[in-house]
């Protein structure tokens, strides 16, 4: 940017007056200076298209079209004009982020077919470029390093996917994360851009060959042969680079697919183990709950049985006490009434009672009656216990149901 805020770029100009390639004019130009230069050289309008490809950018340009055009001048049929863009990757010195940057150079050439004089305009030329029609050949020099760097990035992630355990990560195993998948995606984006750049360069070489075939008819045979050979070499090497890029794209796609499969498989295995652990824990909890229910039911039965037995004992005690009270109350009176009303006891003249000689029979009968009475009491108590036991059994059965 210039001090007035307008964008600047480097422009290299060569004219018929500057015969030596080492004496080309190289200077930073604002858009005003560039416009004046184009007006001075009377460049055809197609070259203006290339100017829109330059300027301040915050991201890589996805448009990789070469904008190749050539025309014979309408004013002078012996004058031909050609313009195009060629792009290439260049190693940058940023130290962070992507190590390779996409560069571009705009070329304009006006050629006098009779005198072989010409004028050149190069926008953002490479520092090692020489001014001739086959200047695009220098773009081949960085492809090998570019592909080697990207192949190294892919190989590191590829080794992780090939030599990692699929089931689960083991001790000393490679660490596989989703960030590796993101790295592959970034690599594929660069390779797709490189593939498009190769296609554009190959198409540009075809068009340059066609242009040279048209204007080079009068050129020496040695020059024509050299130019054709240079173009063939360029196409051959660029085609090889295209094959390598396609191979890297295929490998990166397979590596990404395998990486995602391993991550998904590990996630599924982890989820399955968690589900199995949860199921086992649930079964253990259910067993503990069933055992608690059984223990609670047993305690409830014991408590109910104790309560019923307590009720039975209480009722038995009440009956016994009642019978005891009855026997205690009525037995003396019964004995006295029986004795006094029988002929076994008589009243003497002096007012005293006299026992008969058969009084022993009364004693025997009385003892028998006492035995019968207590037998009835014990019998009633036993029947009462049986009744309560049947009630207890019914309650226990209904409680279990």
Task: Characterise this structure.
The strands form two sheets. A six-stranded antiparallel sheet has the order 2-1-6-5-4-3. The chain has a two-stranded antiparallel sheet with strand order 7-8. With 401 residues, it is of the alpha+beta class. It contains six helices and eight strands; from the N terminus they run ββααββββαααββα. Helix 3 (143-163) runs antiparallel to helix 4 and helix 4 packs antiparallel against helix 5 (221-341). 60% of the residues lie in helices and 14% in strands. Among the domains are: 1-131, no CATH class; 308-400, no CATH class.
Query: What's the number of extended β-strand segments?
Result: 8
Distance between the termini: 94 Å
Question: Can you write the helix and strand succession as a string?
Answer: EEHHEEEEHHHEEH
Specify Rg, calculated over alpha carbons. 59 Å
What portion of residues belong to β-strands? Answer: 5-15%
Query: Can you summarize the main beta sheet?
Result: 6 strands, antiparallel
Give the overall pLDDT as a whole number: 73
How do the strands of the widest beta sheet line up side by side? Answer: 2-1-6-5-4-3
Secondary structural class: alpha+beta
């Amino acid at each position: 940017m210039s001090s007035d805020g307008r964008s600047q770029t480097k422009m290299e100009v060569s004219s018929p007056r500057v015969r030596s390639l080492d004496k080309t004019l190289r200077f930073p130009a604002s858009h005003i200076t560039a416009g004046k230069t184009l007006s001075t050289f009377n460049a055809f309008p197609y070259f203006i298209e290339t100017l829109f490809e330059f300027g301040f950018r915050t991201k890589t340009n996805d448009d990789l079209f070469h904008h190749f055009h050539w025309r014979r001048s309408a004013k002078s049929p012996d004058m031909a004009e050609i313009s195009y863009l060629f792009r290439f990757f260049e190693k940058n010195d940023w130290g962070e982020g992507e190590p390779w940057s996409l560069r571009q150079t705009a070329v304009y050439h006006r050629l006098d077919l009779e005198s072989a004089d010409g004028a050149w305009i190069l926008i953002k030329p490479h520092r090692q470029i020489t001014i001739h029609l086959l200047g695009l050949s220098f773009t081949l020099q960085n492809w090998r390093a570019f592909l080697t760097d990207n192949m190294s990035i892919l190989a590191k992630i590829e080794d992780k996917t090939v030599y990692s355990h699929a089931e689960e990560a083991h001790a000393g195993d490679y660490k596989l994360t989703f960030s590796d998948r993101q790295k592959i995606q970034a690599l594929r984006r660069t390779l797709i851009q490189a593939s498009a750049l190769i296609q554009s360069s190959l198409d540009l070489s075809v068009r340059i060959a066609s242009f040279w075939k048209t204007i080079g008819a009068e050129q020496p045979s040695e020059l024509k042969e050299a130019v054709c050979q240079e173009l063939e070499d360029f196409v051959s090497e660029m085609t090889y680079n295209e094959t390598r890029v396609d191979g890297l794209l295929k490998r990166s796609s397979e590596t990404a697919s395998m990486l995602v499969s391993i991550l998904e498989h590990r996630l599924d295995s982890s989820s399955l183990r968690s589900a199995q652990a949860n199921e086992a824990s649930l079964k253990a909890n259910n067993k503990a709950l069933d055992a608690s229910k059984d223990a609670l039911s047993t305690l409830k039965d014991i408590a109910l049985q104790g309560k019923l037995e307590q009720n039975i004992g209480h009722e038995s005690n009440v009956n016994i006490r009642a019978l005891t009270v009855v026997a205690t109350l009525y037995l003396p009176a019964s004995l006295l009434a029986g004795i006094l009303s029988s002929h076994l006891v008589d009243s003497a003249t002096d007012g005293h009672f006299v026992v008969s000689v058969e009084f022993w029979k009364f004693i025997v009968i009385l003892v028998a009656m006492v035995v019968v009475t207590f037998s009835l009491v014990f019998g009633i108590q036993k029947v009462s216990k049986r009744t309560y036991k049947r009630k207890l059994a019914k309650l226990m059965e209904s409680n279990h149901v």
